[in-house]
Amino acid sequence: MNKDKSKLTNDTRYLVGSAVVAALYAVLTLVMPMPQYGPIQFRFSEILVLLVFYNKRFIPGLVLGCAIANLFSPMVWFDLIFGTLSSYVAFKLMEKTDKLFIASLFPVLMVSVPAIGTYIILDNTGAFITMLFSFMASEFIMVSIIAVITFKILEDNKGFMKYIKEF
């Protein structure tokens, strides 16, 4: 009986933890006074994506948070489907590397997927190139610079890292 109760407690903790991560991602996207949608996006919430590098169990919460945040996009269906899917693919690719900076590049590369879709919809090559590079540059700044520096600092916090690894 104790084994079943312990499993239930662990499952419940994971479910609640994933919901908290999803809510945190969505709220940070929606309340920060920065561009969150469109060709230039500085989603402060994107810092959280590097949690996947340390523990793949963060994937469901981050995917759900991304989907919730994308519900508020001006291109809701497009961002909901392609933006969320590209985040999921980036997370799965992040699992395959043991280098933090390399892991940070997958979200930068995958952000081009919605940009390519936008190109197909708009059929405007000049706007596409500009949009692609602005998407990638803003994602690079948030994830590969700010998030990498943040997590390098957090790696020194043994309590935080223990929690992340045991999530």
UniProtKB/TrEMBL annotation:
<feature type="transmembrane region" description="Helical">
    <location>
        <begin position="58"/>
        <end position="80"/>
    </location>
</feature>
<keyword id="KW-1133">Transmembrane helix</keyword>
<keyword id="KW-0472">Membrane</keyword>
<keyword id="KW-0812">Transmembrane</keyword>
<dbReference type="InterPro" id="IPR010387">
    <property type="entry name" value="QueT"/>
</dbReference>
<dbReference type="Pfam" id="PF06177">
    <property type="entry name" value="QueT"/>
</dbReference>
<protein>
    <submittedName>
        <fullName>QueT transporter family protein</fullName>
    </submittedName>
</protein>
<feature type="transmembrane region" description="Helical">
    <location>
        <begin position="128"/>
        <end position="154"/>
    </location>
</feature>
<feature type="transmembrane region" description="Helical">
    <location>
        <begin position="100"/>
        <end position="122"/>
    </location>
</feature>
<feature type="transmembrane region" description="Helical">
    <location>
        <begin position="12"/>
        <end position="32"/>
    </location>
</feature>
